[in-house]
């Protein structure tokens, strides 16, 4: 057993919360740059230039890329040979978020209770996805998620007969309905299979896959290519003002499903696709 | 793309010159307000009470800024989704509001009210909060400090960049732009 003090997890999460909000990942940056090359609309080009300039300012000034520094979504894979000491893991995660968001001048966007609630003033609690895996390492991802794009996401319990056509229609409808709201160019995460709650998780997980990396299953990779092509034919363009570049990427994750169900989830991620990871 | 350098407050003449798709650079004061502040302003108006600032000719910016770092007047400050304010907007336009800056689609009612009251809806680039913050020179609390990032603040801006989405002629830059580049029908 390897012993890890939970305070180390707090420190790591505090650091990742800030880095994720200041530094746009390289893969997303590269996708924005090639999007700028591909865009034909003059307004779209100007907007992509502003987005690129913005991330550069954020990087140099260590300022948030976007003022909506999100709900802190934290994924932790804990090796089963790790023994956590020094306190409650969930509390340690929240302590990390509290510290990161307060010391990093990040916006506090969490209210509770959900109806007529008050701001918790430290952006806690985080949304925590815990996973036990083989080994003695702890893998942590902090993915701040803004409200604008999250609100344009959707989940549908289809039936198996809807098949791939149903998936295509639902993905295109969802992106189309979102229009300018989720700050396009977006990244589209799609989950297919599992059940009601699992499919949403799959769609969110899809957003963490590096831009440019297709699903390992060839038929799913083909679907990703097809969906991205079709999404970019919708004409929504940068910030919804029209153009060729509506999405930078589309990633699909799949899981086994019940013979009677065909759940599909679409999680929309804005161009401020922030996530940062570390291994303890 | 036509460019306009405008000074707030806005009058009918200035607003009439703006067309969907035009670029605007605003200088002067804009007021911040988003979900909760709109709710409160709407309640005040329905009770016949005065708003915390004189709204005639003014521009509201839908934003909830990030906290200012030491030595800065404001943190990152890009637009939030405007549609959430739709329910309250026609009443504010009736009270004299001339301009709105945000991002995303407006309802049919808001677009109608923009025509009726001769106002303009503009979009700033969502997710460009660090860049936009550079055009904000001064920040002053106007009302409802308890709302935190959602409080009403008066921002002095210089050449604040925006794009006209809905003009007084009923045009919509989102619809027009998308129609121009759409090459697929929804299945
Ligand atoms: S959708 Fe993303 S880029 Fe747009 S305001 Fe929200 S967090 Fe920022």
Mean of the pLDDT scores of chain B?
Answer: 95
Q: Kindly state the percentage of residues in helix of chain A.
A: 25-40%
- CATH topology of the largest domain in chain A: the name is 60s Ribosomal Protein L30, Chain: A
Rg calc of chain B: 16 Å
Percent in strands of chain B:
25-35%
- Which parts of chain B are unreliable, with pLDDT below 50 for 5 consecutive residues or more? none
Overall number of strands of chain B: 7
| Strand order across the largest sheet of chain A | 6-2-7-12
Q: Roughly what fraction of the amino acids of chain A lie in strands?
A: 25-35%
Number of helices of chain A: 8
Question: Can you summarize this structure?
Answer:
The complex is a heterodimer of chains A (280) and B (187). Chain A has 280 residues and is α/β, with parallel strands linked by helices.
List key phrases describing it.
heterodimer; A: alpha/beta; 60s Ribosomal Protein L30, Chain: A; four-stranded mixed β-sheet; 39% helix; B: 187 residues; fumarase; five-stranded mixed barrel; binds iron/sulfur cluster
Account of the protein in words:
The complex is a heterodimer of chains A (280) and B (187). Chain A is 39% helix and 26% strand. Chain A is built from eight helices and twelve strands. Chain A has a four-stranded mixed β-sheet with strand order 6-2-7-12. In chain A, strand 4 (111-112) and strand 5 (118-119) form a beta hairpin. In chain A, helix 1 packs parallel to helix 4 and helix 2 (26-38) runs antiparallel to helix 3. The longest helix of chain A is centred in the N-terminal third of the chain and has 20 residues, at 42-61. Chain A is globular, with a radius of gyration of 19 Å. The two termini of chain A are 14 Å apart. The model of chain A has no long low-confidence stretch (mean pLDDT 97). In chain B, 25% of the residues lie in helices and 26% in strands. Chain B has six helices and seven strands; from the N terminus they run E-H-E-H-E-H-E-H-E-H-E-E-H. Chain B starts with a strand and ends in a 6-residue tail after the last helix. The model of chain B has no long low-confidence stretch (mean pLDDT 95). The chains are: A alpha/beta (280), B alpha/beta (187). Chains A and B meet through helix 3 and helix 6 of A and helix 5, strand 7 and helix 6 of B. The complex binds iron/sulfur cluster. Iron/sulfur cluster (SF4) sits between chains A (66, 68, 146, 148-149, 182-183, 270, 272) and B (78, 126-127).
């Amino acid at each position: 057993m390897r012993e890890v003090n939970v305070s180390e997890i707090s420190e790591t999460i505090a650091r990742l919360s800030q880095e994720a909000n200041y530094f746009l990942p390289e893969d997303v940056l590269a996708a924005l740059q090639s999007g700028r090359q591909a865009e034909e609309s003059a307004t779209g080009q100007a907007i992509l230039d502003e987005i690129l300039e913005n991330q550069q300012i954020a990087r140099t000034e260590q300022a948030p890329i976007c003022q909506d520094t999100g709900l802190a979504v934290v994924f932790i894979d804990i090796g089963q040979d790790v023994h956590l000491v020094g306190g409650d893991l969930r509390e340690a995660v929240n302590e990390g978020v509290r510290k990161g968001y307060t010391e990093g001048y990040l916006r506090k966007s969490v209210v509770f209770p959900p109806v007529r609630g008050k701001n918790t003033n430290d952006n806690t609690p985080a949304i925590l996805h815990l996973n036990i895996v083989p080994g003695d390492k702890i893998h942590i991802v902090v993915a701040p998620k803004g409200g604008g794009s999250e609100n344009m996401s959707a989940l549908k319990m289809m039936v198996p007969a809807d098949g791939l056509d149903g998936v295509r229609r639902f993905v295109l409808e969802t992106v189309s309905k979102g229009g300018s709201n989720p700050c396009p160019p977006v990244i589209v995460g799609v989950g297919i299979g599992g059940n009601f709650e699992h499919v949403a998780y799959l769609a969110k997980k899809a957003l963490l896959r590096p831009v440019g990396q297709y699903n390992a299953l060839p038929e799913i990779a083909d679907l990703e290519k097809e969906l991205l092509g079709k999404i970019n034919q919708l004409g929504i363009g940068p910030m919804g003002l029209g153009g060729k570049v509506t999405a930078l990427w589309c990633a699909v994750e799949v899981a086994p499903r019940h013979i009677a169900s065909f759940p599909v989830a679409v999680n929309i991620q804005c161009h401020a696709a922030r996530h940062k990871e570390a291994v303890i | 793309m036509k460019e306009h350098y405008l000074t707030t407050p806005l009058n009918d003449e200035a607003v009439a010159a703006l067309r969907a798709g035009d670029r605007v650079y605003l200088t002067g004061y804009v007021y911040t307000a988003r979900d909760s502040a709109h709710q409160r302003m709407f309640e005040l108006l329905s009770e016949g009470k005065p708003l915390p600032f004189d709204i005639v000719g003014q521009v509201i910016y839908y934003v909830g800024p990030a906290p200012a770092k030491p030595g800065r007047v404001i943190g990152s400050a890009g637009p939030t989704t405007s549609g959430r304010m739709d329910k309250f907007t026609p009443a504010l336009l009736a009270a004299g509001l001339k301009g709105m800056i945000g991002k995303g689609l407006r309802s049919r009612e808001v677009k109608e009210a923009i025509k009726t009251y001769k106002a303009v809806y503009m979009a700033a680039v969502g997710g460009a909060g660090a860049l936009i913050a550079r055009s904000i020179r001064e920040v002053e609390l106007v009302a409802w400090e308890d709302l935190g990032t959602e409080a009403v603040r008066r921002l002095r801006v210089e050449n604040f960049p925006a794009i006209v989405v809905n003009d007084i002629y009923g045009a919509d830059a989102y619809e027009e732009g998308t129609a121009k580049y759409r090459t697929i029908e929804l299945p």
